[in-house]
């Protein structure tokens, strides 16, 4: 049954009847009074500026994004500047923001926009979705906010608002539930003021209908919201079915010269920390030691085990066991270039560092032999 048919078949007291013009009107009235209107990407709006903000804001809070966004836009004010950038410089500006595939996709997409669209951000949603790293919701948000095109969106904040307001049970990642949410999102998206509406529904999820302890008393959806009515705020959206998270262990080889510089290795362009620089990593302790011996030409290495370092990925938890070797000589017979580089924290190179490298380098001062 379609959403419209379902609404017709239900009593008028069912909150699902609220989907549509009433939902949008209530939300826009709230936005006019309480919405955020002074964020950096809300000024001098262009598709490029909105695109960069939407990618940075994926799974990242506004307060965290703002300084990264401002530095990024200062260095890359338009798509041609980004397309001409060196990979390392882009990853360097992204260091600390996480989810580095976003940065790599931004760079790939910028180059495609220049090569295939003459440097103009496409205004067709299918063409936008064809760019690396841009899905249906992100494409819709970019075009709605920057071009006033009517497209529904369904990011995490919007899913939370809709599942609670309309009492949608079931994990939103399931195909059937996601399809229902897209239908609701489309039904609620107005033809007028679509840019404000799009910002408003994201704001509502980010500032009022938050994950824990939502501020229901000030929510414009207070009356029709099924979750508020039935006390289901804590269980909606339905969480993803829990599975045991795999745990992995690896060994990080840290070669440190007398001048304090450490040897870093560039990760392959795809996979974990793709394209970033970090310490050489091995599955077995003996493999890490063998690599150190080969690179230094020294046997019976006086290595030092540092405290384990834990890092969580989307699908597993990783424990790194760092092995530190203080070099007795200033130079090693190691070919630098595309794969290796010496990194001096006192005069840091502008390269993209994986988070474990950032944290381990920062902590090395506590473990000087």
Notes on the structure:
It is a single chain. The protein has 369 residues and is α+β, with helices and mostly antiparallel strands. It has 2 domains: 3-230, Hypothetical protein, domain 2 (Endonuclease III, domain 1), CATH 1.10.340; 248-367, Alpha-Beta Complex (Nucleoside Triphosphate Pyrophosphohydrolase), CATH 3.90.79.10. 42% of the residues lie in helices and 11% in strands. The protein is built from 15 helices and 8 strands. Strand 6 (309-312) and strand 7 form a beta hairpin. The protein starts with a helix and ends in a 6-residue tail after the last helix.
Total strand segments: 8
Sequence stretches where pLDDT stays below 50 over 5 or more residues: 1-13
H/E series: HHHHHHHHHHHHHEEEEHEEEEH
Would you tell me the structural class of the helices and strands?
A: alpha+beta
- In terms of DSSP E residues, the strand content is 5-15%
**Cα radius of gyration in angstroms:** 25 Å
> Distance N terminus to C terminus?
71 Å
CATH topology of the largest domain: Endonuclease III, domain 1
CATH architecture heading of the largest domain: Orthogonal Bundle
Total tally of structural domains? 2
What is the fourth-level CATH superfamily of the largest domain? Hypothetical protein, domain 2
Can you identify the CATH class of the largest domain? Mainly Alpha
Q: What characteristic shape results from the CA principal axes?
A: globular
Please count the helical segments: 15
Q: In which range does the helix fraction lie?
A: 40-55%
What's the mean pLDDT score?
89
> Main sheet, how many strands, which sense, barrel?
5 strands, mixed
Protein name: Adenine DNA glycosylase
Catalytic activity: Hydrolyzes free adenine bases from 7,8-dihydro-8-oxoguanine:adenine mismatched double-stranded DNA, leaving an apurinic site
Function: Adenine glycosylase active on G-A mispairs. MutY also corrects error-prone DNA synthesis past GO lesions which are due to the oxidatively damaged form of guanine: 7,8-dihydro-8-oxoguanine (8-oxo-dGTP).
InterPro entries: A/G_AdeGlyc_MutY, DNA_glycosylase, Endouclease-III_FeS-bd_BS, HhH-GPD_domain, HhH_base_excis_C, HhH_motif, MIG/MutY, MutY_C
């Amino acid at each position: 049954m379609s959403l419209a048919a379902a609404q017709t078949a239900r009593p008028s007291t069912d909150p699902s009847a609220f989907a549509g013009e009433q939902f949008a009107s209530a939300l826009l009235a709230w936005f006019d009074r309480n919405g955020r209107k002074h964020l950096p990407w809300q000024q001098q709006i262009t598709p490029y500026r909105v695109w960069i903000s939407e990618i940075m804001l994926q799974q990242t809070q506004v307060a965290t994004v703002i300084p990264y966004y401002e530095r990024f836009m200062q260095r890359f004010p338009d798509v041609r500047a980004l397309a001409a950038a060196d990979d390392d410089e882009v990853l360097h500006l992204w260091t600390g923001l996480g989810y580095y595939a976003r940065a790599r996709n931004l760079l790939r997409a910028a180059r495609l926009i220049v090569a295939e669209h003459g440097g103009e951000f496409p205004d067709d949603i299918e063409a936008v979705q064809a760019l690396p790293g841009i899905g249906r919701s992100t494409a819709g948000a970019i075009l709605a906010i920057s071009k006033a095109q009517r497209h529904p969106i369904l990011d995490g904040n919007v899913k939370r608002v809709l599942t609670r307001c309309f009492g949608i049970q079931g994990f939103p990642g399931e195909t059937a539930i996601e399809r229902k949410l897209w239908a609701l999102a489309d039904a609620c998206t107005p033809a007028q003021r679509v840019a404000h509406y799009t910002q408003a529904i994201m704001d509502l999820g980010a500032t009022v209908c938050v994950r824990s302890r939502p501020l229901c008393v000030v929510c414009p959806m207070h009356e029709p919201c099924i979750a508020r009515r039935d006390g289901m705020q804590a269980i909606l959206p339905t969480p993803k079915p829990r599975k045991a998270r795999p745990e992995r262990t690896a060994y990080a080889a840290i070669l440190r010269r007398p001048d304090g510089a450490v040897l870093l290795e560039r990760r392959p362009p795809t996979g974990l920390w793709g394209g970033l620089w970090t310490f050489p990593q091995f599955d077995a302790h003996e493999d890490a030691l063998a690599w150190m011996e080969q690179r230094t030409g020294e046997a019976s290495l006086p290595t030092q085990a540092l405290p384990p370092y834990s890092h969580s990925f989307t699908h597993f938890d990783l424990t790194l066991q760092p092995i530190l070797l203080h070099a007795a000589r200033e130079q090693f017979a190691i070919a630098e270039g595309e794969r290796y580089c010496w990194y001096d924290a006192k005069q840091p190179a502008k390269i993209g560092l994986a988070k474990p490298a950032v944290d381990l380098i920062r902590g090395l001062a506590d473990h000087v032999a």
